[in-house]
Amino acid sequence: MTTTLARRTGFYAGTFDPVTAGHFDVITRAARLVDKLIIGVAENTRKNPLMPLADRLDCMEQVILPVVEQTECDIRVVSFDCLLVDAVKQHGASVIIRGLRALTDFDYEIQMTGVNRRLDSSIETVFLMASERTQFISSSFTKEVARYGGDISHFVTPYTQERLLACLQASKAKQAKDR
Fold it and tell me: Does 50 show up as a binding residue in the annotation?
């Protein structure tokens, strides 16, 4: 009797404005847990992202290259503008991957997990704790440091840094023009 193992598909979602070393850490670890990993870049205009969606998708595509080369995980990057559980179902995933940095993250994430569970109880959520070297990194802090000319090279890849700084420059030029 031959048994076929079902492929496990995970969905890791975020705004990724910008994608950070912390996100990379979660992606790398999640790729060891699932056969296929969908990275969902949320359009999320409610958060008023600095980087356009196309830039965030492009940066994510660059960030995942070494993970794709080092693992057997099939990794895809997609955008979505719907409920997370709907995006998860659209892409055939059964597991939502979430990264946790601190207790404040846990409070928000547990609420989101409860809502997602009510919307679709067949989808599980798996939490990955941030590693000690990335738990302080957030997209918000990265943008703030960059806005004031600080060194963000430890927080993002060189490619993402270049794109983020270009977006900041464009944003400043637009603000100056609007005054």
Answer: no
Is 143 designated active site? no
100 assigned binding-site residue: yes
Catalytic residue among 23, 56, 143, 163: 23
Q: What is the C-alpha separation between 147 and 165, in angstroms, rounded? A: 8
Contact call for residues 140 and 119 (beta carbons, < 8 A): no
Which residues are paired to 80 by β-bridges? 42
Any known ligand binding at 110?
no
- Active-site position among 7, 8, 32, 47: 47
Q: What is the pLDDT of residues 48-96, one digit of tens each?
A: 899 999 999 999 999 999 999 999 899 999 999 999 999 999 999 999 9
Cβ(129)–Cβ(26) below 8 Å: no
* The two three-digit tokens of residue 83, written as one number: 């409920």
Whether residue 154 is annotated as binding a ligand: the answer is no
Is this model's pTM higher than 0.85 or not?
A: yes
**Distance between CA 122 and CA 79 in Å, rounded?**
22
Altogether, the residues listed in the chain come to a count of: 179
What's the CATH code, domain 9-178?
3.40.50.620
